[in-house]
Design goal:
Layout (H helix, E strand, L loop, with lengths): L1 H5 L1 H12 L4 H22 L12 H37 L2 H10 L4 H19 L4 H12 L4 H11 L7 H14 L7 H30 L4 H26 L4 H20 L15 H21 L4 H9 L2 E6 L4 E6 L4 H15 L4 H14 L1 H19 L2 H13 L3 H16 L2 H18 L6 H17 L4 H10 L6 H25 L1
Antiparallel strand pairs: 1-2
Helix pairs in contact: 2-3, 2-23, 3-17, 4-7, 4-15, 4-16, 4-17, 6-7, 6-8, 6-9, 6-10, 6-12, 7-8, 7-22, 8-10, 8-22, 8-23, 9-20, 9-21, 10-11, 10-21, 10-23, 11-12, 13-15, 17-22, 18-19, 18-20, 19-20, 19-21, 19-23, 20-21, 21-23
Length: 519
Amino acid sequence: MSALVSIIPIVLLFVLMLGFKMAGHKSAFITLIVTILLGLFVAPAMDMVPDSLKGASIYGVVWWSFVEGVLKAVFPILIIILMAIYSYNILVESKQIEVIKDQFTSFTDDKGILVLMLVWGFGGLLEGMAGFGTAVAIPAAILIGLGFKPMFSALVALIGNTVATGFGAVGVPVTTLCNEVAPGGAASAEAICETSAFAVIQLSPLFIILPFIILMLTDKKAIVKNICLALWTGVISVLVQYVCAKYLGAETPAIIGSVAAIVAIIIYAKLFAPKKKETNTEKRSYTMQETFRAWSVYLFILIFILVSGALCPPVNDFLKTHLVSKVPLPVIGSTFKFGWISNAGLMLFLGATIGGLIQGLSFGKLMAVLARTVVNLRNTVITIISLIALASVMNYVGMISAIAAGLVAITGSFYPFFAPLIGAIGTFVTGSDTSSNILFAKLQANVAGQLGYAPGSETNWLVAANTTGATGGKMISPQSIAIATASCDMPGKDGEIMKSAIPYAVLYIIIGGLMVYFG
């Protein structure tokens, strides 16, 4: 009964967005209000509140969990989304997006290759470096600039931004997952490598299936070509990611694997794609200087993210230990932390601004672009804050735990098949693979013990299932939908985008469940 009551906010969100076709920001705000009411009056009555908070005022629990949600939404998620859209708007303002468009279309007329390059290769690289919506926002916006329809651009960007999210933001989700179940909260390098490798194995069929789906959505007629390109790109991606995961850990699979995918796609295009058709218009060739200027925004973003990330430990350690704000949250016993100089949003801002200056825009003009971006994203701000806040409330009043416990009680020995669904629910509600792993890592480990799994590899296999499912839930997370809506300039179309993505997300989670169960 607790699980049925706890799932009300999720069902309500679906009904408002899909049934009533209500705009995302309105749906999210109404669902937030309902969640707060359930947290205040129903959760205590049904004894769902965790034991650690039962002595506290339920009003205090709900209020401070709401505050934590608002803080998490703004720092860093909204900042990163804002800066990702800002970086694209700079390219539009400087008209350098036309150069990028020409260069993407210069080596082939094949739209499938272009789309796969952007959402699978470039998008995966962005996810591996920054995460938090950049891999949806930037590829989708570039696709719009290349002339693709907004709904198509949003859908393929969401489908592409899945398997890489487990290792997004330089491996934070899987590292967090391992730390949550490790004694003392610090996982060994061996455990992280093993769990990372297990996640890649569980996701391995999707490395081929998803590129095929993206290619078929782009061009339904070229079935043979789509199969060959999906197999080639998928096999290269999964092999490289597995090697990186098993021997290097969680930081590099998405980054190196996406670079390998880009190289694989280019090789395929050079060998098998139809040659660029000659036209009456003179083909424009760009000098190294012109190419550098056009790509300077993304080049500097890449440089700042790599230098500030875990790939450069001394810089990473310095940034993470300086200018860090800590906000104590009484009653719920939590402390919110935000690094002003270590977050990906700052790296996006610095890279985009420096790139914009190189492209000839004045600092004043860049700030005008930033201000316009903020105004245009006002509905997205409401959506993201509402969703993160309701997720926080659901967590602290025991609703998310009740959903998971109910699913465990119903499924019994078939639980491994449903283990990815737990992770997917976590990401759907919170919008974050990392948050889902924080919520459910211990649950997955505890269930592994109840099922008689031995500590170590067997338990790690089931724990890895959480991030496997979480990557699929990312596709239909309302936060991801809101990012796609904003980047494709489709206000009020959240429900339509979600409806188009749901079948692919269901297929994704089922395949993940089968891999976990039979594995």
